[in-house]
Amino acid sequence: MPKVLIAGGGLVGALNACFFANRGWDVEVFDIRMDIRKMEHVPGRSINLALSQRGKASLDAVGLKDYIANSGVKMFSRLVHDIDGKTFHRQPYGQPGEHIVSINRRHLNEIMITEAEKFNKVKFYFEHKVIKADCKKKELHVIDLNTDQLYKIKGDLIIACDGAHSAVRRSLMALPHFNYSQEYIEHGYVELNILPKNDDYALEPNVFHLWPRGDFTLIALANRDKTFTVTIFAPFKIFKKYMYDDKSVLNFFQKYFPDAYKLLGDSHIIETFNRMKPQTLLNIKCSPHSFGDCILLTGDAAHAMVPFYGQGMNCGFEDCLVFSKILDEFKDDIPKALAAYSERRVKDCHTINNLAMYNYNELKDLVNRMGYKIRKNFDLKMNKYFPNFWIPLYSMVTFTQIPYSKVVEKREWQNNIISKTQNIISLLSIITIGAIIINKKEIIKNIFTKS
Amino acid sequence: MPKVLIAGGGLVGALNACFFANRGWDVEVFDIRMDIRKMEHVPGRSINLALSQRGKASLDAVGLKDYIANSGVKMFSRLVHDIDGKTFHRQPYGQPGEHIVSINRRHLNEIMITEAEKFNKVKFYFEHKVIKADCKKKELHVIDLNTDQLYKIKGDLIIACDGAHSAVRRSLMALPHFNYSQEYIEHGYVELNILPKNDDYALEPNVFHLWPRGDFTLIALANRDKTFTVTIFAPFKIFKKYMYDDKSVLNFFQKYFPDAYKLLGDSHIIETFNRMKPQTLLNIKCSPHSFGDCILLTGDAAHAMVPFYGQGMNCGFEDCLVFSKILDEFKDDIPKALAAYSERRVKDCHTINNLAMYNYNELKDLVNRMGYKIRKNFDLKMNKYFPNFWIPLYSMVTFTQIPYSKVVEKREWQNNIISKTQNIISLLSIITIGAIIINKKEIIKNIFTKS
């Protein structure tokens, strides 16, 4: 059986391990962290995860879907909080019953590691730092952090799941024809928590709470332990200008998010802002995703994206599923499968990266605009009556497995139809009004009988 | 005196060494290669260099301009070769006398190393490989290739001049807010030579020879030894499809560049294509160019560009001059100078990278199009009569030191004027023709007497 070396034992690395364990391959996973199942506090970014169809389907392929989906909290709509702290309005995500699942990163990661380790051909090496991959020699260079010993490990396939700052990817940067870009957005984020109130959720749990305030935004997602993970997104210059000390931070929250402010509490807000600096958000695109006969980039190592479409994890999980299907198709011929993967998958990853940037604007502001609301309602109505013919953009991304690039093609087709329909309606209106004005009803009659 | 560590002793590294030697700083330069003055053949890319105003001004600041400019061959115009191998047309670069200088990379590099070494506070370390820079500790990590010993060298300022695949830049990739992109174009290049004929140049020396053939192009630049450096640029897929063996390569040259083909000779073409694979061309942009209190990226490490505007070296040299002036302005306060440099210089470097991509299309094809020729002639005529008011785009880039970003602003202003003038002329024509048609000459009289 071939041997796969996986750099990184985070969400995508652990899921890849499950996929290859199921194939019966020898699997070795190298993770810089301690075994997270033994840690009190796990370092690294969080932002609560929203599991949707692509992620579920990928988990389903290794038999984990129901177990994991039932460990989260279902969210059926956005609940938009007004600035008065009292009124809000609801925007369903899709048709009744359609939902995404708020899920805890750590819990999910732990389940998958345990699941993969059930196979005796799978081995996790914790506290092992991957420093580079050698494409020609098919080697992964790994340092055991307990002994500082460097190991050069040979494998048939090397999969980089080592995140946005991937060491594997970095070691490929000088290869000819490797296109790459990383772009920080002007927004950063700080994460807070709302505790339970009288042993129950302090806010309605089965919604995605949203406080859009133009250039900055607060969100809150429920956890199973009845807490909420709350995240503020704002430009770094806003953090600097308006949240520079205890008093200014409290004033800011009180002014713009009065209801959330009360639930968060002064001391928690102050403590968090003193402990944490705003974290950066990064958009990474590269092409190809596969190299030579043995290296594949997946997850954030291939396409770190801003979190505003809730697709980062889902896209990373889908990478595993797509590659697994391609390996089936090419009967485990690794070089052919790698070439086909880049050929098919890169454009989809570029598309979701772009959509995530687009939704960055939507979450900030659009949700409050009339035109956006009308289109959203129109799309949902159309979808209700023509469920296969007309699927809203958000639903295609979230509730289907239509390849991301096809999603955008379909959206353009919808826009085109709407635009043509509008033109026809305008034309007919003008003709009708014109006819009425010159009081020649005969004209109307003629036109409609002829057409 | 402060100490500057320079990664890379190529063109920009050696010029930086001259600048800091002139300031009286301690200078240490680390270069992976042997001392090129002792080598028979220097590895690495060439493509003959075209020295223009920005490069000259920078060399002038360290007293090298005349010496170096006189070591090259002046080029006053493009000479475009038709496909029949017999006819050609001439496109002057600017006003009579305005020229660029074809120059040999190695010769230029050697002069500058020797010049810098005249100062006893300057030390070149050859066969020393820079592997990373540590921003916090102000250290450069360097391996002596003769002993494999790693040195961590402290300095007050670290300047990366280690080229498109800069190790210094690579070690900064994970810093927050460092935006970066690298993009390979679909064209590659192969370099050949035309030898002297009867002890003289085989082609006219004081022009830039150009064989534009749509998607692929041949160029030739004269050297002082009466040879020509010849470069073919073509998409990799064209190389693969039409230049895959001895016979196909010769056929290709014979068909598309018949006059150059004769001068190159069968055996030289075959030998070159057997020895060399087509080389890649790369566009790199990043922002910022300076980091913390001590690191600066210059030259290709900051902005590798495709060679189609002949500005890669000139821009790298101008980096040295711009930073030197900023150090003067801030009285050698390094952190302030670094911050000011990124603030001012990044947009200019992004602009010339974009212009180089734009000229990529111009060289390929545009030079043969009527609209392009008319505009080129118009610009030169306008420039002749209004030399300060109207400078053509190419002349602003090549014969002035107007910051690149300002060059593009001025070009947009010119386009605007042309467009408005065209509108006015069109309007007047329509009115005149209309008036003639309806045979009311009185109208024309009225309009022109009123206006």
Automatic annotation (TrEMBL), chains A, B:
One of its GO terms (biological process) is kynurenine metabolic process. GO terms for molecular function: FAD binding; kynurenine 3-monooxygenase activity. It is an enzyme of class 1 (oxidoreductase). It is a multi-pass membrane protein. Keywords: FAD, Flavoprotein, Membrane, Mitochondrion, Monooxygenase, NADP, Oxidoreductase, Pyridine nucleotide biosynthesis. GO terms for cellular component: mitochondrial outer membrane. It is found in: Mitochondrion; Membrane. It catalyses: L-kynurenine + NADPH + O2 + H(+) = 3-hydroxy-L-kynurenine + NADP(+) + H2O. SUPFAM superfamilies: FAD/NAD(P)-binding domain. Pfam families: FAD_binding_3 (PF01494). Residues 3-345 form the FAD-binding domain. It comes from the Eukaryota. Transmembrane segments: none annotated. The keyword ATP-binding does not apply. The keyword Oxidoreductase applies. Catalyzes the hydroxylation of L-kynurenine (L-Kyn) to form 3-hydroxy-L-kynurenine (L-3OHKyn). Required for synthesis of quinolinic acid. This is Kynurenine 3-monooxygenase. It comes from Strongyloides ratti.
